[in-house]
Fold this protein.
Amino acid sequence: MQDLVAKRFLEIAPEADFVSLRFLDEKSEIIGVRDDVLLPLQSGCNTGAMITVMDRGGLGYAATSDISKGGLRRAAQRAVDWARSVSGRMVHDFSEVEMPSPRGRYESPVAESWDGVPLTDKIALLLRASESAKCSDSIVNRELFLWYTSFDSLYLTADGGEVEQRFHLMAPDIRVTANRGNESQTRSLGSRGHCRQGGLEVLSRIEFEKQATQLAIEADELLDAENCPSDRMDLLLAPDQMMLQIHESIGHPLELDRILGDERNYAGTSFVTLDMLGSYQYGSELLNVTFDPSRVGQFASYAFDDDGLSAQKAHLIENGRLVRALGGGISQARAGVDGVANSRSCSWNRPPIDRMANLNVEPGDSSFEDLVSRIERGVLMRTNRSWSIDDSRNKFQFGCEWGRIVENGKLGALVKNPNYRGISASFWRSLKGVGDESSFEMLGTPFCGKGEPNQAMRVGHASPVCLFGDVDVFGGEQ
Amino acid sequence: MNTNLREDFFGLADVLIEKRAPGEEMRLWFSGEQSSFVRFNNAAVRQPGAVEQGFLSMELIRGQRHSAVTVALSGDKDIDGARLEKALAGLRLELECVPDDPYLLLPEDPKSTEQARANRLPPPEEAVQEILEAARGTDFVGIFASGGIFHGFASSLQQRSWFESYSFHLDFSLHTKANKAIKDSYAGFEWSRSRLESKLEDAREKLAVLDRPVKELTPGKYRVYLAPAAMEEITSLLSRDAFGLRGHRNKTSSLLKMVNGEATLSPLVTMEENTAGGVGPSFDKEGFIKPSTVTLVDEGRLTGALVSPRSAGEYGVPTTAASNGEYPEALEVGPGKLASSEVLSSLDDGIYIGNLWYLNYSDRLSCRITGMTRFGTFWIENGRVSAPTPAMRFDESLYKMLGTNLEDLTREQELILDPSTYYARATRCARLPGALVRDFTLTL
């Protein structure tokens, strides 16, 4: 179908300063089981195209699921009409923006093909895992999902640019809830946090079936745990909480479109300003953060962004110092600063905006045991369950599913309802230990919300375990 | 995509339903929109565009087995015919692989319904021109979404239902140089330039107060007024998991203490799903018609739940035709006795909270909620607007803010249309009063 769409695009591309077409052909399947009963299968075929036009200094887009020649022609005309009707009244003169004319390909690595395993086997796997999670009378809810998506993306420009990218995405999920009276405790894979590019090997890597049992045991154990203590203390964050911490208090504040004010009505602004780039001490010298679309198998790896910019790994924070923001070609032109190839859209029906892709904390040199041994009094927290941060991405409060006291260099009792709060601008400066490769995990989420119109985006976050000092930690009410 | 979507959908449904094999039933759901989206920043256009999309969900049922697929429709009969033929063949193969579904429920008394609202919208370019003129001289940010929203249902049980609505939603904020902001929206079905200008003028006047020196606040307990938009943030969070029967039964509801009869809200609080007063379709994706109203909380006590057809099958109770997520589409919180004109004097010394932001649970057992103040939040002194406040974090139990610490709700309710556009333009809404609350806890 891509050849047909490419041919039609050449035939209908209007006369304008710049014209691109982005075509997506996506297939998805969700297989779910709740309490040993198969949920209705959900599959989808989502096909459509967006045409973007820059002309006379204006920009316009039109998206359509009608990819016939007539449908694409109407969309192109609509995009031209919008570009011309708002010319001179836009936030930027788009005639000054140089758009790339890229050529290239990308495909996600796959070791074990989703389509190579019969549906009955996948259902059987979920049912076995569900059964194994019923390990105690306290277990009241077990939900398990396999979500597989594959899509072909074709990006064309009227001046000959052509990029083909093929993605294979796996997002498994398990949620197990234990209950006694008014107390319910849930353990999960972190809202599809173990999503990756690839096939069924993603499940083997995390030992999906064993996870179901382990999470059920942990949910049951939490019912008997004490509440997390409330005090200022050390905080040791596992990668499946670091993921959220990176996302909310480094990723979003560094998005150039937020800094430029585009998101002020919805997702918010940023405490970061353009003059901080190159000089601001974002965190302690142990903090190294990269934008890395090249990491093999990570959820948001790609070769080109959705405006056709070639994607490369780049440091955003180096030895604690802010060196670069998260902005694609258009935002870079508007702001006059360097950025990265992160102009992305969630599908064919939404325009690209600045998004995180893979945003990672690079490993340090401390083992998990080293970090624990350095803690006089603190808490180890795993798996995000609650997140809230202000619109400039500064004052945050996050909660986890599971906690464990650390005292005098040793792991202690299990605690429930662990939370902590802080301020981004000072929190990262309290980073006093970064785990090595042995604790480094590649995670992500399919659901980063942002943009007007709204877009839920796939992003990846990899991190080792990290140690922070003097953090405001607290638990539940009883 | 053409403009005869209703006829196209029902025609396509006839063709597909005709393709059933003996013993098969079929349910079809259409979801489409023809939208313009124009994004603004600094009172200029950031991204203008159009989206036309249509999706057909086809569910094939044989006995207690069923499977469904959703396909993007191109509008081209040949392309769509080939896609759907392939999809139907795929469903037949899946039915060979899936076990009987014990919770599959079909309508016992299938009914059809029609809701169609005429298109009275101006061309989007005209509206954008008027918005830019009205916003001139301000730091105006936001989005204008406009156009038709369409939903259809058809089944082999002879049901044919259709929903068609043309609406606009301008969701905007005005910002000061210090980036303090007033947020408002102008939404409806018939555009009025004078109404737009009045909305912006009102926001401009409120913005002037934000230029005053900020009243610094320290963590502690405060007397606050939660405006309807702030209340909507609270009810939106609750809507995720508080009102569904499944959550009540499997103990994952954030209102578990109320489910267990061990907690109540204030007797002032009544909540209902008011489909009759909503702006979305009255039928669901499985052919069930929603009741006009479902009482959820009656004078502080949890008395009802939203029940999807699947939960109805599982728990043996009647369905309320809720979506599978069992969240409200048209939640109404009943009014109180406080006149809106007396809010400031009743607040006396405290915080007028125009909006809240990024709410989440900090302790689900206690239904304790954290979040931030945002947009149009002021320090009130002696019943008068005194100064803007910094963005503050709160952390408070619902059982306190709408329970023991709730003093009153406003007599007037506000209809708040959901501006959400994830995947498609929403048709949810809420009708809410403001709330006067004592000892509201700010933490950071």
Q: What stands out?
A: Chain A is about 20% helix and 40% strand. Chain A has two domains: 2-224, 227-474. The mean pLDDT of chain A is 97.
